[in-house]
Design brief:
The chain is built from 3 helices and 4 strands. By secondary structure, it is α+β, with helices and mostly antiparallel strands. It has a domain at 24-66. The chain has a two-stranded antiparallel ribbon with strand order 1-2. Strands 3-4 form a two-stranded parallel ribbon.
Amino acid sequence: QSLLKKVEGHLFEVSGRTLQTTLSIGVAGVNEQTAKAQEVVDRAHRCADELPGNGLKIYDPADDLRKAASQGNVVAM
C-alpha cells in the first residue's frame, strides 16, 4: 500500500508538464497445480483490470467460481 501512496503522491515532469499517476496492481500466485505461466499473468492482469485505480488485488480462485456460477456455468457435484 505504501508503494501505491508514493506513486500517487509523486508529481512527474514530462515535456514541461506536471503529471500525476496511479497504479493498479494485480497479484497471482504460482504453485504445483499451475499449468502455464501465462495463466498466472492473465489472472494478475484480470485482478488489476477489476480495480478502479490506485489499488491492489490478490487473485482468489473463489472469485472465478462465483463468476462462473453467476453465469450458470457451474454445476454442483
